[in-house]
Amino acid sequence: MSTVLVAATVALAAVFGLLGTAKALALPPMRARAEHLGYSVRAFRAVGLLEVAGATGLVVGLAWRPLTLLAAAGLVVLLVGAVVSHARAGDPVTLMAPALVFVALTIALAVATGSAA
């Protein structure tokens, strides 16, 4: 596996890990985001834990590639859910953009990981 692919995996895992931890801890900005999107804090914490699990899967997947692909698939499902939630809340595309960008990055990582096999 190339150094670039490892670095991209770790970077993506760090973002998901940090944001997931913030949601799981129900930090005030995440509580506000949960309320805005119509989620309970408990549900948003669950999403955060899933993001942390996905981040962990990406990193552990460096040793076992199928896990990277599974973790990436799970994260894409979460991100698509985020886009749908923003759309239902009537948010402009600019608020959906981070989720859309991370969908693309996560898919690209999965494709690159699969190609490197």
Structure explained in plain terms:
The protein starts with a helix and ends with a helix. It has one domain (3-115). The protein is built from 5 helices and no strands. Helix content is 85%, strand content 0%. 25% of the residues are buried. Helix 1 runs antiparallel to helix 3 (41-60). The protein is globular. With 117 residues, it is mainly α. It has helices at 3-24, 28-37, 41-60, 65-88, 93-115.
What is the mean predicted local confidence, pLDDT? 95
* Integer tally of domains: 1
User: Uncertain segments of ≥5 residues (pLDDT<50)?
Assistant: none
Multimerization state: single chain
Tally of helical runs: 5
Briefly note the structural class of the backbone: mainly alpha
Helical content class: over 70%
Strand content: under 5%
Tell me how many strands there are. Answer: 0
General shape: globular
- Please report the distance between the alpha carbons of the first and last residues: 8 Å
- State the major sheet: none
Instruction: Provide the succession of SSEs.
Output: HHHHH
